[in-house]
Amino acid sequence: MSVLSASHEVISQLFLAENTEYxxxxxxxxxxDFVKSKSLRKSRGxxxxxxxxxxxxxxxxxxxxxxxxxxxxxWSKEYIGLYSQYASVGLLYGMSGTLxxxxxxxxxxxxxxxxxxxxIVFFAWNFKIFFAILTDSFRPFGLRRKPWMIAGWTMxxxxxxxxxxxxDKMDASTWLATLLVTQCFxxxxxxxxxxxxxxxxxxxxxxxxxxxxATGQRVRFSFCIVAGIIQTFLLNGPTTNDSGCDINxxxxxxxxxxxxxxxxxxxxxxxxxxxxxxxxxxxxxxxxPQHDMKEFVGGLWETLQNQTTFSLLVFVIGISALTxxxxxxxxxxxxxxxxxxxxxxxVDTITTYAALVFAIWLFQKYLINRNWRYTQYxxxxxxxxxxxxxxxxxYNSGGTMDPWFTIFIDLDTVSLSFPFYLKIxxxxxxxxxxxxGLSQVLYSMAVIELARPGQEATTYELIVTxxxxxxxxxxxxxxQLMTPMRTVGCDDDYGNCSSxxxxxxxxxxxxxxxxxxxxxxxxxxxxxxxxICCCIFTPFLPASKAECAEWKRQGEEKGVQKxxxxxxxxxxxxxxxxxxxxxxxxxxxxCHSITSSMDLLLPLCF
Length: 606
Fold this sequence. Notes:
It is built from 25 helices and two strands. By secondary structure, it is mainly alpha-helical. It has a two-stranded parallel ribbon with strand order 1-2. The longest helix has 30 residues, at 172-201. The termini are far apart.
């Protein structure tokens, strides 16, 4: 038996043993500590044999060393497929930047369809928990991860090839439907990869635990940067911009990829990146019993009743819904008053993701074994400070109403240039901004401690799904606050704007309609809510790996509580349902302009 398989079996046995203390061992160093004090009473190849009934027997020093050496080299041929999988996900996720220009300029889509293009395409991301239950419950060919990942990417490549050939012959609805299905198959690959990252994380020592998962996220966001570079330098041609755009260096260029060529390029890159998945090595799962759906749901229900799970749900909902809001007035200033070009928008995308990648590296290098709460406080307060710096461009203090200055301080959103005849402010945002990205890494560390063998993907995606839903609620809250605070932008060329709006046709009208002071109040309110709620909800996050394990141990000693499970389930379901209802009740939503080619989405509209 290999070192990796033996160690994985040790950890699995600790979880699955009938001993009432098994729940205190959560993998990694916790498993090592538990092994030191308990007899496994089983011979494992190179491990020492223990006489059954010998209460004083214990795992030898060699066995402890075996566990510590169990973490594989993730950059080796057998395991690099996990990181290449995250690279592909990042590339396809970073494609979100092209949705609005393609919808408006290439497909001449209806206003309400294009405004909600991202919500449509990434709809499947809000249901990752269901993909997780599916992939954790069934094992094609006896494998838990690899078949799902290969199947998902095979279908993604098929759909990208279809887009590379036929995209210019589609209408907006058919194009969006194709991208939606592409993201569904992407989830079929991404979810088991997340579960595998958690599974590998449980093999890491206490000092290193979480490095594999955090590196995967860093790779993912790094390839979002690659997607931004492609958009910036290869999609600024005449076929992917407004037909009236001036051809010069600062605006539109005379050359650039067509939409078919763009998807062809993405197809080639993804095909290359996903090759290593075919020789990805899985951990031996023979020691993890395959449960039927009733047993699986029962195990998940026990996890929901745990104190640590409940605390994580409260933290994720509070932090994701009520902190680090997407500041819509900054988008108004950048794209209506300052008027960023597509090239500058692409640079904005690159710098935003680059900052997030750097932040995750900083966390891995210096903060992963320090107090996680301080990291959460620091990232939220840093984002709030950058939000306050925006007040200077509102008033153009020191000439700061400058595109490059706003790009420098803009870490929370990535937005796209859009035609000014749209009478609404359209904000295309990442599902994770600078601070929210770090928040996900933080609660992912806790999931490593929490997940049971066989339920790694489900436990992880339960938290992630709720977090994604809560971030949708956050965006809606920020948008709804614009009306009472009179910050909604109006770009009517004839000045037919209500006194309750800010006219953004040019800088003069922006100033005359009290834009600077209104934008300032709006920003102060959002930042105040964010900081206060960060202080309220961050204590629900375990401060460290050790505290997470301690919370879990204390929860097990006190026993599971059905009331806690019901409350946690209620919070998760309500947050998800609220986010989806908000998406599908937006006035003049896509339902009213859907074509027959998108009949599959009609049930989601009612």
